[in-house]
Amino acid sequence: MKIATVLPGINAECSALALNEEGTHMAIGSKSWKIYLLNLPENIGPQPVKIQPSSELLAHSATVNSLVYSKAGNRLISG
C-alpha cells in the first residue's frame, strides 16, 4: 500500500532510512552522499500524501550506509 510520495528534491537512490521514535521525522540517506530530512504529517489517511524534504545535509564523503535517531530524537547519527 502506497502511503506517501516524496516530491522532487531527492534525486538519488536511497541507501538508508530512519524514523524518529514519534514517527514525525524521517531521514533518507543516499548514494549521492546526502541526507534528506523530512517532516511527516501527523495524520495519514487512506490517500497517499505528498512530502517535500525540509532540508538537506551535505557532510558525507561517501554513500550514507546507516542512519539512526537518538532515543530523545534530537540527534541523527549517520555512517
Q: How would you characterize this protein structure?
A:
The protein has no helices and eight strands. It has 79 residues and is mainly β.
Helix/strand layout:
Elements: E1 4-6, E2 14-19, E3 25-30, E4 35-39, E5 49-51, E6 55-57, E7 67-69, E8 76-78
Parallel strand pairs: 1-5
Antiparallel strand pairs: 2-3, 3-4, 4-6, 7-8
From the structure above, extract its key features:
single chain; 79 residues; mainly beta; 4-stranded antiparallel beta sheet; two-stranded parallel sheet; globular
Helix % is under 10%
Write down the overall mean pLDDT.
Answer: 83
Derived structural class: mainly beta
SSE order, as H and E? EEEEEEEE
Low-confidence stretches: none
Strand order of the largest sheet: 2-3-4-6
The total beta strand count reads 8
Shape: globular
Radius of gyration: 12 Å
